[in-house]
Fold this protein.
Amino acid sequence: MDENPRPQWLEEIPSVLEILEGAKGELGFEELVGKVKPSELARMLERKCHEIYRRYEEKVWGRWKGEVDPAKLEQSLQQSRMSRAGKTTEEIFKLLINSLGIEYERNARKRQIGGEKPDFLIPDRETFDKDPSKAVILSVKRKVRERWREVVGEAYILRKIHRIPDNVWFATLECDIDDCVVDTMTKLDIRVYIPDDCYEQFKRFQKAYPLSQLFEDLLKFGKRRQLKLNER
């Protein structure tokens, strides 16, 4: 029996995927694909998902505030909100990568690479095992301040211990990122993709790019890979 059962009020909030589906419907996602840059679609989806989640959270608060200690209820909702936000970001990237027809393996976390668990392995583990230079390890994070050291540590282990080349990419949907973080990551040859609307302040760093370029780079990468396959 679960010693820490999920609070009943959290069961009244739809899952991350259900809210993402709702966001797609409210935005008219299918009609926007191909008309709006993937990077902007990502931001639009993230904002809409947050908006929808907040609607449900308000309903939960109104229903349970008289039955549960307010501090306990707020703490529970806050923890859920933070956990779901990261998962939402990953699902948004997955959705957009799928919409562009880019090959990837997301369950690489179940097949660890040198003990590390990448968010996305592009195009797949088989290609990576045969020739790591033809694959990309993509890490995506919503919040950078608390998580960027994980990416740095992962890159260091993969390169220095397992001799994997410089093909670690990092992307975020948030502008809450310090200069020193971007400086450190780019000096370690990690590509950093930052939302277009705040990219200007980071463009002086050699390996910092606007988020819109991430999807272009992934598409180009796929084309280069396809050309190599056709040459065999």
